[in-house]
What does this fold into?
Amino acid sequence: MLFFASFFPYVTDFVSNHFTSLFAQMFYSVIVICVSLSNMALGRAVARANGSTSALDYSNRKIVAADLIIKAIGIVLAIFVYPPINMFAVILAGCVVTFLPHIVNRKNKKLGEIDAV
It folds into this structure.
């Protein structure tokens, strides 16, 4: 994961200099997708080593799937509509990965409180 993440400064600089270039946006997307996939592989390796198949692992799969789907939609829109849409898709995916677990946990706690009453 760190190998791919080490390209972020260079790719970000390239995209900032050629913001509307489809090639620059796709190059950035390749690095972002590689980081996401290597992070997913790392998570699976840790889960396999710990032997865990908890609900947390299932929840993580949903979040990673949402992350990759948003990025894929951004790539398709960048190819056919407007290349910088890709950057907005990456930012949206980051927000989803950051805030979705908190929203899901809050919802589950409220459901648990209702069931307990």
Notes: The two ends are 45 Å apart (CA to CA). The helical segments are 2-5, 8-17, 22-50, 55-80, 85-116. The mean pLDDT is 85.
